[in-house]
Design goal:
This protein is about 45% helix and about 10% strand. It contains 19 helices and 5 strands. A 5-stranded parallel beta sheet has the order 3-2-1-4-5, with helices on both faces. Helix 4 runs parallel beside helix 5. It is globular and about 75 Å long. It binds a DNA duplex (15 and 15 nucleotides) through helix 6, helix 11, helix 14 and helix 19.
Length: about 425
DNA sequence: TTTTGAGTTGTTCGA
DNA sequence: GTCGAACAACTCAAA
């Protein structure tokens, strides 16, 4: 056991050294800081052998390790259950305090409470900071102290609060000399974690001022480079949200609003964790979903016979990404045309998306299905053919992903649009009227 | 307490 | 082809 007292900084979804709130606070305390990451077995065991997100995290950790090594330090990477890993660490090191950045998801909160209890039983504190969002659970509330349920008033209040919020970066850089200089074993290879390479291209987009400035005009056209593609970096904290919000505020209000949606849904999940399992509005848990396995399979495979839907679904499977416009079209189609439970679709996106974020994915699906807070009205049903005309008028996107569209090799539409539309309208009307 | 206006991203229909 | 209304009623937020 090392006899020198130290702090641990526990990286999770904040895989960067710069402008990292919790890391800065750990370094500022004056003690040396040992950087730690844990591959959580409880999460890994629920994933397939080849998961592109694990691969992405591993890649970012390698980058972090390189940066830390150049500073004379290193990154301690462990695999196991966090609680058990900490039990081991407390034997190996004389830990004074553990610093980290908070997590708004129910699993992360339970995990952190268990770790906190363990540490506190040893007289060690767990210091948690807010880093992945601008505002935490209770910083943007109605005057009566309750959470907002509608986006627009939330966003107004969010912006009002932002104007008095200091977004200057946490100057972690100036403190990096305080990193632990003792021996740190190098991190395990991906295969040693039991994960195979996915063969997918890892997202590595940069913050593009030109794209963000044009965001409101180009974001709806999947054939254009019209969206930021920064979701994955935000999910894993490779980018600082403070930095991005500062730029968004200068560059494009509509883009800033998207970042506020991200915070809105995080806040909703924080206050209403029941949305993980069921509809925000309980009445919609009684929707008589058809849940056809065959239809669901065809949707997943991009074989519905609606080119716009299939293009989106194939883009997702093959790249781990789907353009936002297509996320709405495919989600609307699965829930309203095929009448498959939104949770099925949510789970599929969760498995496939690089940028998967529980709160945003859940919020988006419930919005699409009309079951969420501040959701789309039930009669707002996307017509996949109409959407194709409006947002891919040249057919560029369709040709890229569904080159056989229009040929005999391409399946006939899985459902008739008008019949499906009428069925959905009738179903929801009956549900709502039965409630009165 | 009551009232009033408003509510991400759409589609269809009929004038 | 364009345009406005209807789709549905309810809940939320704020005055």
């Amino acid at each position: 056991m090392s006899d020198q007292q130290l702090n641990i900084f526990w990286f999770r979804r904040d895989l960067r050294l710069m402008d990292n709130c919790g890391l800065y606070e750990a370094l500022r305390s004056g003690r040396q800081v040992l950087p730690l990451f844990i591959f959580d077995e409880d999460i890994l065991n629920g994933l397939p052998a080849s998961d592109h997100r694990v691969e992405y995290i591993h890649l970012q950790l390698q980058q972090l390790e390189k940066e830390l090594a150049s500073l004379g330090s290193g990154l301690l990477v462990k695999k196991g259950r966090p609680l058990e890993v900490f039990v081991g660490l407390l034997k190996d090191y004389q830990v004074e305090a553990v610093y980290t950045n908070g997590d708004h998801e129910p699993y992360g909160q339970k995990r952190d409470e268990k770790v906190r209890a363990l540490l506190e039983s040893q007289g060690i504190s767990l210091e948690s900071h807010t880093d992945h969002l601008i505002f935490n659970k209770n910083q943007v509330l109605k005057p009566d102290g309750s959470p907002y349920l509608v986006f627009t008033p939330y966003s107004k209040q969010w912006k009002a609060r932002l104007s008095s919020r200091d977004l200057s970066p946490f100057p972690s850089q100036e403190m990096l000399a305080h990193l632990w200089k003792g021996n740190i074993p190098s991190m395990p290879a991906l295969q040693a974690l039991g994960c195979k390479p996915s063969g997918m291209a890892m997202p590595s987009f940069t913050v593009r001022e030109d794209i963000i400035r044009n965001y409101d005009r180009t974001r709806d056209f999947p054939a254009l480079e019209g969206t930021s593609r920064l979701g994955t970096q935000l999910r894993f904290g490779v980018l600082s949200i403070r930095d991005l919000v500062k730029k968004a505020g200068k560059w494009n209000e509509v883009f800033l609003n998207e970042l506020i949606w991200r915070e809105f849904y995080a806040m909703v999940l924080w206050h209403f964790p029941h949305v993980v399992k069921g509809s925000f509005k309980p009445v919609f848990d009684r929707l008589p979903w058809v849940n056809g396995e065959e239809a669901f399979s065809r949707w997943k495979a991009g074989m519905t016979g609606y080119p716009m839907v299939d293009a989106g679904m194939r883009q997702l499977s093959q790249t781990g990404y789907m353009h936002n416009r297509l996320r709405m079209i495919t989600a609307s189609f699965l829930t309203k045309h095929l009448m498959v439970d939104w949770r099925w679709g949510e789970a599929w996106f969760a498995e496939k998306l690089f940028d998967y974020e529980l709160s945003s994915n859940n919020g988006g699906w419930q919005w699409s299905a009309g079951t969420g807070c501040d959701a789309a009205p039930y009669f707002r049903i996307f017509n996949p053919t109409e959407q194709q005309k409006r947002f891919d008028p040249e057919g560029t996107f369709i040709r890229e992903w569904v080159p056989e569209a229009g040929s005999p090799d391409y399946p006939a539409p899985i459902v008739d649009h008008k019949l499906a539309r009428d069925r959905w309208l009738k179903t929801v009307k009956e549900l709502v009227s039965s409630q009165r």
